[in-house]
Design goal:
The protein has 165 residues and is mainly α. The protein has one domain. Helices cover 75% and strands 0% of the residues. The chain has six helices and no strands. The chain has helices spanning 3-21, 35-46, 51-67, 75-96, 102-129, 139-164. Helix 2 crosses helix 5 and helix 3 packs antiparallel against helix 4 (75-96). The model has no long low-confidence stretch (mean pLDDT 84).
Length: 165
């Protein structure tokens, strides 16, 4: 049981490290895919019942993004924890509807969570550094689409792994 926590921590570390060092070479308009966020949202969507695991996931994913960001330490952890709380409410309603269109629900949830995360971090940036964040321009649409492309791949990988169980 505890092995999955260690594996998840190592996986988030590798993704954060790759995201900060390797993937900037594959940017579009200066946008790098946020694989840590994609994995975090995928785990929220597919592992809804394991609350302790999801709290751990939000803390670890936020921790590694905080380490590689220039914002105050804890910004991503708080943002991811708020998204986790929101996910509990949002995804509970999906269970009741029997999820007839799971990818559309996933995509909608991903877009909402990503937009909230960007807005929250922009507010933190403005309050702490008194700087307007460039991330709230039209480029956020490209950023969401770019990350949603990789999230779609992750969705089908998770769905395939879930069907094997």
């Amino acid at each position: 049981m505890w092995v999955k926590y260690i594996i998840l921590t190592i996986l988030f570390f590798i993704l954060a490290l790759a995201q900060a060092s390797f993937f900037p070479y594959f940017n579009i308009l200066g946008i790098v895919p946020n694989f840590v966020f994609i994995l975090f949202i995928s785990l929220l969507f597919f592992c809804r019942q394991d609350k302790v695991f999801l709290i751990f996931t939000s803390i670890i994913a936020g921790f590694f993004l905080d380490v590689f960001s220039n914002l105050f330490f804890g910004s991503f952890i708080i943002s991811f924890f708020i998204i986790y709380i929101f996910a509990g409410r949002f995804l509970k309603n999906l269970i009741e509807t029997k999820e007839r269109f799971p990818f559309l629900h996933f995509a909608f949830f991903f877009i909402l969570a990503y937009a909230f995360n960007k807005l929250f971090l922009s507010i933190i940036n403005f309050v702490s550094y008194h700087q307007y964040s460039e991330s709230l321009s039209w480029i956020i649409l490209v950023e969401i689409a770019y990350n949603l492309l990789f999230a779609t791949i992750g969705f089908y990988v998770f769905k395939k792994l879930q069907n094997k169980k």
